[in-house]
Amino acid sequence: MLTLACDMAMERNKGAKPDVRTVYLNGISVDLLEQRTDGTITVHVRSGDTRLTTDVRYCADSIVLPDLHGYQGTALTLAAHKTLEDRPLRNPDAHEATRRGSRKYWFSPPTQFTVAVYARMELSARRSFSCSTAR
Predict the structure, then answer these.
(1) Are 41 and 91 in contact (CB under 8 A)?
(2) Checking CA distances to 42, which of 34, 51, 106, 108 falls within 20 to 30 Å?
(3) What are phi and psi of 64, to 5 degrees?
(4) What does pTM read for this prediction?
(5) What does the pLDDT average to over 26-45?
(6) Which of 85, 86, 79 is nearest to 51 (CA)?
(7) What is residue 72's three-state secondary structure?
(8) Model confidence over 114-135: pLDDT tens digits?
């Protein structure tokens, strides 16, 4: 989860520690199955869930894909006809917006998508992977 300490007017740490600006993909998924009238909920929690079967958009300063061994031994599998993209945020996740491009303000820098050494990523046919900065 992204965190950003602020005093309602200014960022205290400018995104540096102890703020958390990196998302680590971990293969854990949580689905909300039901919310009852008394406020209780039923959820389904899975681990090793590394196959993306829906379109996904990640928004963070940095995304890290560790060496996971989920679906068919992969750290991440993108199913056919699905899109994985990252985009800077126009809605605030920081106090200070920066101007990039043609008259548009952005609240986060381009995302850096890092795939760990030995992590295996499989992109199925007819899929789309879009990342502003990858290494």
Answers:
(1) no
(2) 51
(3) -120, 130
(4) 0.71
(5) 95
(6) 79
(7) helix
(8) 999 999 988 876 655 555 544 4
